[in-house]
């Protein structure tokens, strides 16, 4: 069993509703996302993906369509909070708004990312690990073995 990892970056703004610090203000991050999947490399000379757990390009397609294309250069707001109204005002002025049903911390974003990626992975591989950097010095991690 081998793990392979691909790294992505995206720029997203967010606001932490009711937070007791500076991140209650709208601000942005250059998020850095590490996606690791595990499986057995294909061992078949006739297979175009011989030697691969999964093509890195296939991971890229999934993460682009599920995460990057949706979240990059968007404002992420807690749609279950009064920030819903803030989002509607921004949308009316042409801004890209993502309403999540959670507080948009890196912890909750990791759960969301994990669920979105897992749904799209081929049956031969599974999600092993995620790391999401909010800043160079602050990040959260998701490990498959830690989940219920
Ligand atoms: N457990 C969490 N704590 C905080 C989160 C989070 O997602 N999970 N998020 C924030 C803010 O959104 C933002 O990320 C600020 O974090 P912080 O590391 O405090 O920011 P700094 O600018 O001080 O970062 P440096 O890398 O140290 O410059 C707050 N807390
Ligand atoms: Zn932040």
From TrEMBL:
Keywords assigned: Lyase, Metal-binding, Queuosine biosynthesis, Zinc
For the keyword Metal-binding, the answer is yes
Q: Which organism is it from?
A: Kaistella jeonii
Cofactor annotation: Zn(2+)
The protein depicted here goes by the name 6-carboxy-5,6,7,8-tetrahydropterin synthase
Pathway assignment reads: Purine metabolism; 7-cyano-7-deazaguanine biosynthesis
The enzyme's E.C. designation: 4.-.-.-
GO molecular-function terms, A-Z = 6-carboxytetrahydropterin synthase activity; metal ion binding
The annotated active site, in chain numbering, is 23 (proton acceptor), 73 (charge relay system), 134 (charge relay system)
An example of a Gene Ontology BP annotation on this entry?
A: tRNA queuosine(34) biosynthetic process
Q: Which of this chain's residues are annotated to bind Zn(2+)?
A: 14, 27, 29
């Amino acid at each position: 069993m081998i793990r392979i990892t691909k790294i992505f970056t995206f720029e997203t703004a967010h606001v932490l509703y009711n937070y007791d610090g500076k991140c209650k203000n709208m601000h942005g991050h250059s998020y850095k996302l590490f996606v690791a999947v595990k499986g057995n490399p294909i061992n078949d000379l006739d297979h175009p993906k011989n030697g691969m757990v999964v093509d890195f390009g296939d991971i890229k397609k999934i993460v682009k369509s599920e995460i990057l294309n949706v979240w990059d250069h968007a404002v992420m707001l807690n749609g279950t909070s009064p920030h819903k109204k803030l989002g509607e005002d921004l949308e009316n002025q042409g801004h890209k708004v993502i309403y999540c049903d959670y507080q948009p911390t890196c912890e909750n974003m990791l759960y969301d990312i994990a669920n979105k990626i897992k749904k799209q992975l081929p049956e031969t591989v599974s999600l092993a690990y995620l790391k999401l950097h909010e800043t160079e010095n602050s990040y959260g991690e998701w490990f498959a073995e830690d989940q219920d």
